[in-house]
């Protein structure tokens, strides 16, 4: 039998959400008995397989594997949680300007795990543990009601009778509030997300203030949950003030984190080092925030000169075979070869040939165009034999 019922200030209306059930109740004892009927039907619908039972309460998803008592505790907590959400809705109905909870509605019926029955630890209490939290909390409140207090002494000091507790409270109401620290009882829940709270004040102050954005920015459509969040929004989105300045350049920013990142660009020390043993390669983050590796391959001028000499030698042999006796002007072949040796410069040299009087030794050419198939093959063999040959070659028409 259910303990003496609490007197609720407003008419209670709780709805069953088991599967497709839509029954409503105004008394918790009737609601809990109705839920037990669903549990009996579940045992018939889901034959026991390693004590596994799936809760059919909407948006729950709980699966019991510890046996029938675990599922009973879980289902009764759904009933208790439904009552708390209904009480929370009554509170919010009196504050229509607060708005609705912005947290996902899919969490509204997710309840904590209940590993054991509820045990009363009041001194000399011999009540067996409860499966139903509603009956347990009513029982504990009965202990506070049974303490004798002189008439009119609303702040009469009362010692807590919970095991190993030496606290003293002033009056019966304070004792009931203190006992919730032992039982973890909640009095109200958010109807939107299902979050449970110890009293109405915490529901309105700690939860709805955070989960309902009602501080609107005067400069845009943005809303924020707190005044401090609104101030930060205006500072970073609508203000041009940049109080943090770099001591080495004209850069300025709105926060210290961005300034520290910028100062790294002025450091002469490499920010990143290769962690392969024996390798001393390093690189830095550039001003634009990108990390770049050196991908330019420099071919020596000797390679170009070697190819030019071989081309001259082949050209001379071909002229002799054709019986051509006309002497070619001095330097004509190298000049012609220079026209046919086209290349791609992948990076500007530090000093050009005109400035230094000679070609840069680090210049890279990819030689193509105007070569016979045999010459092109010879060039590829030389290119591949060099230990740093660029792969693949770049051909320019």
From TrEMBL:
PROSITE patterns: ZINC_FINGER_C2H2_1, ZINC_FINGER_C2H2_2. Its main location: nucleus. It is found in: Nucleus. Residues 317-329, 347-362 have a biased composition (Acidic residues). GO terms for biological process: negative regulation of DNA-templated transcription. The keyword Transferase does not apply. Keywords: DNA-binding, Metal-binding, Nucleus, Repeat, Zinc, Zinc-finger. Residues 158-187, 215-243, 244-271 form the C2H2-type domain. GO terms for molecular function: DNA-binding transcription factor activity, RNA polymerase II-specific; RNA polymerase II cis-regulatory region sequence-specific DNA binding; zinc ion binding. GO terms for cellular component: nucleus. Pfam families: zf-C2H2 (PF00096). Residues 308-397 are annotated as: Disordered. PANTHER family: HISTONE H4 TRANSCRIPTION FACTOR, HISTONE H4 TRANSCRIPTION FACTOR-RELATED. This is C2H2-type domain-containing protein.
């Amino acid at each position: 039998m259910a303990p003496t019922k609490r007197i609720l200030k407003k008419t209670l209306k709780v709805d069953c959400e088991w599967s497709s059930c839509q029954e409503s109740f105004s008394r918790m004892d009737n609601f809990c008995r109705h839920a037990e009927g669903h549990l009996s039907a579940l045992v018939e619908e889901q034959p026991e397989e390693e004590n596994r039972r799936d809760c059919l309460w909407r948006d729950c998803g709980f699966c019991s594997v510890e046996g029938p008592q675990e599922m009973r505790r879980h289902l009764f907590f759904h009933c208790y949680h439904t009552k708390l959400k209904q009480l929370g809705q009554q509170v919010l109905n009196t504050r229509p300007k607060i708005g609705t909870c912005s947290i996902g509605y899919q969490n509204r019926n997710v309840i904590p795990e209940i590993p054991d029955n509820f045990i009363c630890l009041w001194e000399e209490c011999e009540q067996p543990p409860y499966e139903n939290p509603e009956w347990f909390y009513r029982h504990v409140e009965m202990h506070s009601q049974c303490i004798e207090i002189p008439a009119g002494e609303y702040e009469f000091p009362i010692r807590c009778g919970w095991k190993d507790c030496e606290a003293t409270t002033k009056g019966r109401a304070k004792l009931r509030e203190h006992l919730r620290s032992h039982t973890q009882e909640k009095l109200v829940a958010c109807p939107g997300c299902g979050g449970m709270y110890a009293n109405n004040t915490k529901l309105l102050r700690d939860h709805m203030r955070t989960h309902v954005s009602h501080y609107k920015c005067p400069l845009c459509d943005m809303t924020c949950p707190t005044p401090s969040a609104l101030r930060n929004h205006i500072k970073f989105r609508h203000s041009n003030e940049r109080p943090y300045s770099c001591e080495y350049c004209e850069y300025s920013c709105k926060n210290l984190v961005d300034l520290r990142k910028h100062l790294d660009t002025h450091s002469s020390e490499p920010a990143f080092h290769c962690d392969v043993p024996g390798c001393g390669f390093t690189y830095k983050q550039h001003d634009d925030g990108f990390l770049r590796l050196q991908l330019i391959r420099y071919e020596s001028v000797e390679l170009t000169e070697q190819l030019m000499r071989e081309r001259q030698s082949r050209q001379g042999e071909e002229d002799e075979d054709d019986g051509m006796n006309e002497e070619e002007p001095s330097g004509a072949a190298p000049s012609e070869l220079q026209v046919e040796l086209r290349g791609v410069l992948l990076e500007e040299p530090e000093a050009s040939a005109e400035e230094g009087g000679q070609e840069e030794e680090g210049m890279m050419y990819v030689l193509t165009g105007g070569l016979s198939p045999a010459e092109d093959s010879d060039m590829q063999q030389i290119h591949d034999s060099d230990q740093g040959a660029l792969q693949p070659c770049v051909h320019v028409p």
